[in-house]
Design a protein that fits this description.
Blueprint: H1 3-10, H2 12-26, H3 33-45, H4 50-67, H5 75-86, E1 102-107, H6 114-127, E2 132-135, H7 142-155, E3 158-160, H8 168-182, E4 186-189, H9 198-215, E5 222-228, H10 234-245, E6 250-254, H11 265-270, E7 276-280, E8 288-290, H12 293-301
Parallel strand pairs: 1-4, 1-5, 2-3, 2-4, 5-6, 6-7
Antiparallel strand pairs: 7-8
Helix pairs in contact: 1-12, 2-3, 3-4, 4-5, 5-12, 6-7, 8-9
The chain binds guanosine-5'-triphosphate (GTP) and magnesium ion.
GO cellular component, one term: cytoplasm
Family: Belongs to the GTP-binding SRP family. FtsY subfamily.
EC number: 3.6.5.4
Length: about 300
């Protein structure tokens, strides 16, 4: 299945929330103020957020003027272009080390899909021919280590682990040494989501960072914040808390297959200026895709089976 088809399938519920509601609106109508007002409401219901909804409607207005569009039937196409414009600056590429192993740190509150996303990334990088090591940095609960080991088995990647309660920074220290010894290309570090409060989180992340920066200059190459797409606008609140304590370089938005709130990606990128690097579109190993603005906009704004 190609990227566009995967986005279409994974974003079906979000498409219903935007395109599905739009179809009833624009049939047989002119592009006028009334229609633009209704478009704004549709966007607000799709978790696009107030500021971005206004921005998109303004963009659609301008595009309509520029293309001299007057027919309501052109609305989906115009909205698709406006969404692509909103996401134009998103940088989905992942930073890679100039030499030696590349280290990615995965952070986020509990249950958002950190460990699953690591498993999916491991599978993808392995398929690209890279040697991948997983670091079991969530030492908070024993099940977390076992869960990561299961993903290690499935993807065929070695897991560096200590026992429950161990120091996560020590696990990552060992993972860096192992990566050097084995000539690994990528280290994916899992972290605990249950650190209760900001002070604990800050303490743990700064300890990890200290070790990582000392042992592997230039690392972490990415700090990826995982957020649960089904929480819609709340994902923004989560992001805000983490942005205050971690040097977040990009985001993984998970569980988009299970929600109509995929529109939340727009304010994440446009208002918060955090690049969305990956999206989780299902529970299977190959259901994580690099974020594509054009595939996203098309999946949200075009009917099923249409290739745009
Ligand atoms: N449908 C769907 N489910 C997902 C996706 N990503 C993760 N999940 C599910 O979300 C649940 C939690 O995922 P985990 O990877 O354990 O989350 P975590 O952030 O590591 O959780 P903690 O270790 O408890 O902090 C699991 O049941 C996953 O299968 C996705 O893209 N789509
Ligand atoms: Mg986990």
């Amino acid at each position: 299945m190609g990227l566009f088809d995967k986005f279409k399938r994974g974003l079906a519920k979000s498409r219903d929330a935007v395109f599905g509601r739009l179809t009833g609106l624009f049939q047989g109508r002119k592009l006028d103020e009334g229609l633009y007002e209704e478009l704004e409401e549709v966007l607000l219901l799709a978790d696009v957020g107030f500021e971005t909804a206004i921005w998109l409607v303004e963009r659609v207005r301008r595009l309509a003027r520029e293309t001299k569009a007057t027919d309501g039937a052109e609305l989906p196409q115009l909205l698709q272009r406006a969404m692509e414009d909103a996401l134009a600056d998103n940088e989905a590429d992942m930073k890679v080390a100039d030499s030696g192993p590349t280290l990615y740190l995965i952070v986020g509150v509990n249950g958002v899909g950190k460990t699953t996303s690591i498993g999916k990334l491991a599978h993808r990088f392995k398929n690209e021919g890279k040697k991948v090591l997983l670091a079991a940095g969530d030492t908070f609960r024993a099940a977390a280590i076992e869960q990561l080991m299961e993903w290690g088995n499935r993807s065929g990647c070695e897991v560096i682990r200590h026992s429950q309660g161990a120091d996560p920074a020590a696990v990552i220290f060992d993972a860096i040494a192992a990566a050097r010894a084995r000539g690994a290309d990528i280290i994916l570090c899992d972290t605990a989501g249950r650190l209760h409060n900001k002070a604990n989180l800050m303490a743990e992340l700064s300890k990890i960072n200290k070790v990582v920066e000392r042992e592997l200059p230039g690392a972490p190459h990415e700090v990826l914040l995982v957020v649960d797409g089904t929480t819609g606008q709340n994902a923004l609140l989560q992001a805000k808390a983490f942005l205050e304590v971690a040097k977040v370089s990009g985001m993984i938005v998970t569980k988009l297959d299970g929600t109509a709130k995929g529109g939340v990606i727009l304010p994440i990128v446009r208002e918060y200026h955090i690049p969305v690097k990956w999206v989780g579109l299902g529970e299977q190993m190959d259901d994580l895709e690099p974020f594509s603005a054009s595939a996203f906009a098309q999946a949200i704004c075009q009917p099923d089976g249409s290739s745009g």
